[in-house]
Amino acid sequence: MYKLLSLKFGVCNKIIVSKAYPLLYTHTRKMSSFDKLFSKIDELKPTFINRLAKAVEIPAVSSDESLRPMVVKKAEFLLEQLEANGFTDIQRKELGTQPPPVNDENLQLPPVILSRYGNDPAKKTVLVYGHYDVQPASIEDGWESEPFKLVINEEKQLLRARGATDDTGPLTGWINVIQAHREAGIELPVNLITCFEGMEESGSLGLDALIAREATQYFKDVDAVCISDNYWLGAKKPCLTYGLRGCNYYQITINGPAADLHSGIFGGVIAEPMIDLVQVMGTLADSKGNILIKGIEEMVAPITDKESKSYDNIDFSLEDIEAASGSKTSLYQKKEDILMHRWRYPSLSIHGVEGAFSGQGAKTVIPAKVSGKFSIRTVPDIDSDKLTNLVVEHCNKAFKNLGSPNTCVAELIHDGNYWLSDPYNSSFSAAAKATKAVYGVEPDLTREGGSIPITLTFQDELKTSVMLLPMGRGDDGAHSINEKLDISNFMKGMKLMAAYLHYYAESPEK
Ligand SMILES: C[C@H](N)C(=O)N[C@@H](Cc1c[nH]cn1)C(=O)O
Ligand SMILES: [Zn+2]
Ligand SMILES: [Zn+2]
């Protein structure tokens, strides 16, 4: 085995090998390889920050139809970066038009970028997935600086911009890891395939079909999938993630008058869509965190003894949730309750209303058509179709009870499945060793309250394990204002990615 490893690492060839101590030799060799690689990563810090700065400058907001050209522009930027760093077989996969509900029915989905680095049949193949689209952001939301301009805060040692942690920082991290190998003259011990998409924040539309098509083509030799698109549980301890909640996103549209109206002339005379909407939306959940739609609770898998015990050793507290949310508004006080409600129970969130007045001042308008947006985070064993039937039935009934002459349509915008895996396979073991090598601690094994819709599809279609390797922290403000990535997480995160690939390369199973 040490011979094979020496070939793969391609460095330190002058060390005299003692056959009596192959493991010690392997370990010493690896540490020396890591030293060289990690020094190169440190040396390339300005280059990596500059690449991130250029990437986050492009406002690739997938949910805003008018910004679709920017999402495509960011894909093109990444294509250039892959090419410049020696990736081969780079393919820009078009996914066709965006399915309804959509305003522009000819709107093209952004491309998926496939590329590979290395194609050696003797090596394992790791597919890394990331998304280059981001959540919306504007300075008026309360950002300290322009969201699409990277701020390097030397005092706090952090990088601030939309996408810094979710997911442009980690995504560019994979390209950086390859650049570091090349410049350090260290052979990559695995073949790497990238799959970068531009619709994750909008339900990964079109990607399931692409993965199914490529399972026996581009992805045919994939041994493991690694996703760096979530966060540590708190702000101190690294973790590996073996579960995600799913996300079913809905809208309720209430249609009334032909145009927005003057409330002085029409108020009290016509039925107002916004008044109907707030009442229907008010029936969805209560202020204690309970979902009021009947039939959902019954689908949630019961807690096992093994699961109950799994919360004991997790490094997390009420203070962490208070610090990350900047408030004392937690619905639960005990660690187990907080974690269970983040990881293993469904939740319903109300996000906003399209078509309603939301600016400053006091506009006296009656909006003619409003769409209320809400999502339900799903967990084992909630069936997405059954859930949608329950939601639509509930909304229709609630609207009917109002006796309004307006019309109401409740519909699913997109859904993405939950995912739960075995955290003790060879990919997780490799990532645990990598965490120990980079951070000096054993990682916590966590589930994530957020969703990465495509995770289960990778697992099922490629019949491989998936492992989530977060780069950023739980207080990074993903989807929020002032999204950041600590510089230490960026730098160590790339070392972690690199070390994971090396440890995974030598794991016994394919
Ligand atoms: C965890 C990941 N970085 C993320 O933020 N995912 C989104 C995906 C999404 C958006 N709509 C539905 N799913 C999330 O969890 O909100
Ligand atoms: Zn993300
Ligand atoms: Zn996100």
From TrEMBL:
This is Peptidase M20 dimerisation domain-containing protein. Its cofactor is Mn(2+). Substrate binds at residues 229, 262, 364, 377, 451, 479. Belongs to the peptidase M20A family. Binds 2 manganese ions per subunit. InterPro entries: CNDP/DUG1 (IPR017153), Cyt/Met_Dipeptidase (IPR051458), Peptidase_M20 (IPR002933), Peptidase_M20_dimer (IPR011650). GO terms for molecular function: identical protein binding; metal ion binding; metallodipeptidase activity; omega peptidase activity. Keywords: Hydrolase, Manganese, Metal-binding, Metalloprotease, Protease. Signal peptide: none annotated. It holds the Pfam family M20_dimer. Residues 242-400 form the Peptidase M20 dimerisation domain. It comes from Tetrapisispora phaffii (strain ATCC 24235 / CBS 4417 / NBRC 1672 / NRRL Y-8282 / UCD 70-5). It comes from the Eukaryota. The record marks 262 as: Important for catalytic activity. GO terms for cellular component: cytoplasm. Mn(2+) 1 binds at residues 166, 201, 479. Mn(2+) 2 binds at residues 131, 166, 229. The gene is TPHA0N01240. The active site is at 133, 200 (proton acceptor). GO terms for biological process: glutathione catabolic process; proteolysis. SUPFAM superfamilies: Zn-dependent exopeptidases.
